[in-house]
Amino acid sequence: MGFLAILDAFKIAPGAKPVKTLVKTVVSVGLFIALAVAAAPQQAGVSHFDGNSWWSHVKYLADDSLEGRDTGSEGLRKAQAYAVEQFKKAGLEPAGSNGFYQPVSFTQYELDEAKSSLALVSNGETKPLSFADDAFFSARATHESVQVTAPLVFAGYGLKIPEKNLDELAGLDLKGKIVVYLAGSPSDIPTALASHYQTTGERWKSLKAAGAIGVVAVMNPASMDIPWSRISLNRNHPAMDLAGAEFNETPGQQLGVVFNPAAAESLFAGSGHTFAEIAALGKDRGPLPHFALAASLKAEATVITRKVKSANVVGKLRGSMPGLQGEYVVLSAHIDHMGIGAAINGDKIYNGAMDDGSGSAAVMDIAASLKAHPETLQRSVIFLLVTAEEKGLLGSKYFAEHPTVPVQTIVADINMDMFLPIVPLKILRIQGIQESDLGSSAAKIAESMGIKPVADPEPLRNAFIRSDQYSFIKKGIPAVKADVGFELGTPEQKIFKEWLTNRYHAPSDDADQPVDLQAAATYEEFTRRLLIATANGPQPYWKADSFFRRYVPGKELRLIKSDAH
Ligand SMILES: [Zn+2]
Description:
This protein is of the alpha/beta class. It contains 15 helices and 22 strands. The radius of gyration is 23 Å and the shape is globular.
């Protein structure tokens, strides 16, 4: 699941425990699985999965020898070779541009911290900031070396959302200035809309139009998945973007800085406001004030760039219905992870077992199940394992820009990313549930299996735009991503919160963690059923009131079809 790419998506669970306490809380894997299987609810219908083949794929992908599958690394190439082997065994046809592979080129950006600095300047006094404790450059938002001192302006959430008449930039002089904002959005903005406008590119569009030259994102203490200490630890991990100016979503942005909320009072000193006041309002997604800050930011960044090559892996199962076999349902997951990073508890390999070894394994497993237990598929299915998700959904973005089948023939994307089978699957959280027929279909299938489908109960986490389905959504293609869910205020919620705090994007997201194989198997069965239903059912469309309908190309035609549908 994406994290580094989207400044706005930096999260931490409230009351998060420090990393050091995590190891002791790990339950014996075997015991946990045994208990979970015994406690699993009866699922309607036969399942094609038992969790074991899924787990063996996860273990392969998360092995230390694959070194965390960083984009461009030997470890990722090994993982992809394994996936190609599994695709061949499952009888898939190659559907990349080079066999099963679709090569993708990247530019890597790495900050040379020894030759960089940040400081706040006010009343002629310069106060240096510590990269480790106060604030650091986002290499993803700082593409070139830069030396600049510019005034800071606080713009609330930094959002302009015309649909809701929200313009937090109105009345502010932002010309040549650096905009400080609190990650998040006001509560009266619907989740999908808020998510869309919080993407790096969309937010920058309005900031650039207002004349801003850079941003400082203050993380919202109420919505951080990962504690600052852990985020800061990996701040110098290189960032990437797709090679080619056409992929630059932040033209004119000179710098991006991520600020520790625990150190943010220094930004507000002398402004007549405190960060405590802002954070209290932001906690409940309340409206925020907008004002000029007393300090300027003095920034000096030295950025080293390098070319990197990687690839998506694409396989195809041909549909049988003349007239429909030229249409495609995409089943996707990301096979990359974060590679090797700063050591935590002596471990520096970020194995990415759940993120997203779990989804990649499910793609392979579901392909295999369709060979072992064939089903009539009228439409064709694309099995897609993308690269560089952790760099900002880049592999899927490239695929959506340059699909290996005509883009208008892709009818849906079912994405799997870190679906977290760590408790029995009784509740399925479906991102996009209310947006399209695909969401409705997913809900219906879950219900038929005795599973309760729910919308995202934690909209602040911004999950709808944080994985690869968003690349398809932006091309007008209906998409869903489902995850094992929980009721708010239950012990399960605590298990998820602790998982995010301790294991998400940490070396302990490895094969030595408790997982519920029965939950994984049931999740795979749900996904298989949704895939088959989508391949054989009417073409899914966006709901009439869905925000994302705007991305449909040749809108008029699709809308007429949709309304008639
Ligand atoms: Zn991730």
